[in-house]
Amino acid sequence: MAKKILFVEDDPTLQETLGEVLKGEGFEVLQALDGEEGLKLASEKNPDLILLDLNLPKISGFEVLGLLKGAEGTKNIPVIVLTNLESPEDIQKALYAGATTYLLKASYDLDDVLAKVKKALQGSEM
Amino acid sequence: MIEKITFWKSCQKYGISLWKCPTFLFIVMGATTISSMVGVYLLGEYYDNPELVIPIVLVVVFVTFVPGSIIVQSFEKVAESDLMKSEFVSIASHQLRSPLTALKWSLSFLLGDHAGELGEEQKRYLYLMRKNNEQMIMLVGDLLNVSRVDRGELVIKEKKIKIGDLVEERIEELRPMAESRNVELKLKNNTSEYVMGDEIYLGMVINNFTDNAIKYARDKNAKVVVHIFNKDNNVRYEVEDNGLGIPEDEQYRIFTKFFRSSNVTKHETSGTGLGLYIAKAVVEKLGGQIGFRSKEGEGTMFWFELPIIKK
User: Fold this and answer.
1) Smallest Cβ distance to B105: which of A13, A24, A89?
2) CB A49 within 8 A of CB A25
3) Do A84 and B97 touch (CB under 8 A)?
């Protein structure tokens, strides 16, 4: 069965490009444009992996991360933080809150993100 | 007539009125002080009335106090505007990141043939766009770090790092770049010591020295030697090349912001001129030293030293 990936990101260009690439690789992609929708999809659809931006409308990515990791149903889903916040404090905060990986969007190409996604999914199977 | 005086001109340029212009106020203060001294002297000389001197001195003190406080205020304004400038750079850079990322991913999408197959000629232009996009992303990242340095907000997490391992890791990452430019890249790792450092920032410095050496290499028989070894109580990291070298009259500016040597800008267009400025701030923050020696046409050697931490 195709792995389900939830992509929480408010920029439509990023949603479209990465979304298409993930779909092309055979993943089922759930897309959310804000934190609230992201949380809702995470608890309803039980994805295998979450890609999470930190600057999000309605509920911030940090809060979403905290809520995901605090809820029984979602706490074991690996979360890759995909953001442009790059201060060491933000990185520390996200990793402390339970993010599996922290990626700076501007430094990663679609292929690089794809590789990280595959790696994270492999890790969660073991 | 007054417009001809230089300080008046400079104050006008910054939009400061005459009564708030520090240089003018300074002259007023000086004139008041001198004339009151003379006045006090004359009073004492001719009237022999010391009681009169005290109120005069008080008035003079008060008169000089007013321009004095305005001058102090204007210095504060300078410091404040410097901070605002730095904050502005930081905010603008952050805001630029999002559209630059959207551009980067769109280009990656097109180049990955996800929107249909493209011809070589079309791709050539897209690669060109990607190169420029990368350059902008690099500049934005550097600007963010520079504004952090300028505001004294460079937060460096200090933890024990086996520096030899970090160097090996970073140099391996640069190997493909060296190969594509026909530069022989050699690494001599002669340390197993630990230093206090931040992997992200220290990695950036290690990267920067080597990246520069490869970028500004000569066309033929280019060689870059990276050497890390113990020296007294420090670990010393050296990157030596036989490249273009830095012209002697420009060497004093090497660690300043936006410095790019005149002989390399002709040769290589990428580079922000901010890497070494950041490198110096990072190394000094970690209690180390940084330096270089260079001869134009012969090559350059950059080094830094960091104190060894006992296990």
Assistant:
1) A13
2) no
3) yes
Q: What is the DSSP string of B86-109?
A: HHHHHHHHHHHHHHHHHHHHHHHH
Cβ within 8 Å, pair A13-B104 = no
* Residue B179, C-beta contacts closer than 8 angstroms, at least 6 positions apart: B185
Tokens of A11: 């920029």
Query: CB distance B108–A13 less than 8 Å?
Result: no
Burial of A33-71, coded b for 16+ CB within 10 Å and e otherwise, reads bbbebbbebbeeeebbbbbbbbbbeebebbebbebbeee
Tens of pLDDT, residue by residue over B176-195, are 888 888 888 888 898 888 88
How far apart (Å, rounded) are the C-alpha atoms in residues B182 and B308?
A: 35
The predicted-structure confidence for B214-254, as pLDDT tens digits, reads as follows 888 877 888 899 999 998 889 999 999 888 888 888 888 88
Beta strand pairing call for A101-104 and A79-83: parallel
